[in-house]
Design a protein that fits this description.
Elements (H helix, E strand, L loop, with lengths): L1 E3 L9 E5 L7 H17 L2 E7 L3 H6 L9 H10 L4 E5 L9 H10 L4 E7 L12 H10 L3 E5 L3 E2 L2 E2 L2 H9 L3 H8 L4 E5 L6 H5 L3 E5 L10 E9 L2 E10 L10 E5 L12 E12 L6 H17 L3
Parallel strand pairs: 1-4, 2-3, 2-5, 3-4, 5-6
Antiparallel strand pairs: 7-8, 9-14, 10-13, 11-12, 11-14, 12-13
Length: 303
């Protein structure tokens, strides 16, 4: 997949999905899939236009925590069939009005013959452009446009804001339903203190990414993908209060894994459900007993 960070003219015509796409949830996926399908049916390059940073960060100096790292978001785009991503600094386009953006960027740079967006997409200076205006401008300049309708979960609209709230509350099953996949990340495995090995529960450690919405500290039912195989995992997200940690870690025990050590490898970890809050134990024996109890809970988890 080609990633372009400059506003340069494309020699190839594109079908371009527009959005920030934090989390790449089911609404975002519908927008991207439609643009990809249109590209396939019309001999165009399937593309995504997105931003290097949240507009709120540039305009207000603050922004909501992201749901996933940028690298993982780009991987989701590629898995959906996107061949080109325009990853643009918002500051380069923030002062453009809606028509200038469509004429000079969407058509002038991306060479779009088709554009797609979600029902609540806004663009142009002051965020005054929306799906209706985009459709009107696309027709004016001779290209097609599709605005995807609102999708709901539990009778309420699916949104990145709702997903962030669900994650922050430990409601992983709702987050997963709105994401259309399991919440998680692909992260490098780092060295730990090997205490898990000493206790009989060898674990892999991954540092929780900075800048993301934080789920409650505690134990989660998880899955880890190793060499294409999925292993059930007992994961603790937090600072390990019994033994101490100076950073937030995802520490995962895979009871059924007995392969090579995985240090330095990038592994995908996904979460099914919240099991219990993180707490400090009076002894390592108490900790060991709790881990065994967590294992039984995770094994019996049917999500």
């Amino acid at each position: 997949m080609e990633i372009i960070k400059e506003l340069v003219r494309s020699s190839e015509q594109t079908s371009t999905a527009l959005g920030y796409f934090d989390g790449v949830h089911i609404g975002h996926r519908a927008v991207i899939k439609e643009a990809v399908k249109y590209a396939e049916n019309n001999g165009l390059v399937p593309a995504v236009f997105t931003l290097q940073q949240s507009p709120r960060l540039v305009l207000l100096g603050e922004a909501p925590k992201n749901i996933m790292p940028l690298e993982n978001k780009l991987a989701e785009f590629e898995a959906l069939g996107v061949e080109r991503v325009y990853l643009i600094d918002f500051r380069e386009i923030r002062h453009m009005d809606a028509e200038t953006f469509v004429r000079d960027i969407l058509i002038g740079c991306f060479n779009a013959r088709h554009a797609g967006c979600g029902f609540n997409y806004h663009f142009g200076s002051g965020a005054l452009g929306n799906g209706v205006i985009l459709g009107t401008l696309c027709r004016k300049y001779g290209i097609t446009e599709t605005t995807q309708p609102q999708l709901c979960y539990g009778d309420k609209p699916v949104s990145s804001t709702r997903i962030r709230k669900s994650i922050a509350q430990g409601d992983i099953s709702s987050a997963n339903a709105m994401l259309g996949r399991k919440y998680g990340f692909s992260l490098p495995v780092i060295h730990g203190r090997r205490l898990g090995h000493e206790l009989g529960f060898p674990t892999l450690n991954q540092e929780f990414p900075e800048g993301l919405v934080m789920p409650p500290f505690g134990v989660y039912s998880a899955e880890v993908e190793v060499d294409g195989k999925i292993y059930k995992g007992v994961s603790n997200i937090g600072i390990k209060p019994t033994v101490g940690s100076d950073k937030v870690l995802i520490e995962t025990w895979m009871p059924d894994y007995s392969g090579r050590e995985l240090y330095g490898e990038i592994l995908k970890i996904s979460f099914d459900s919240f099991v219990r809050p993180e707490r400090k134990f009076n002894s390592l024996d108490e900790l060991k007993k709790a881990i065994n109890q967590d294992r039984e809970t995770v094994i019996n988890n049917k999500e």
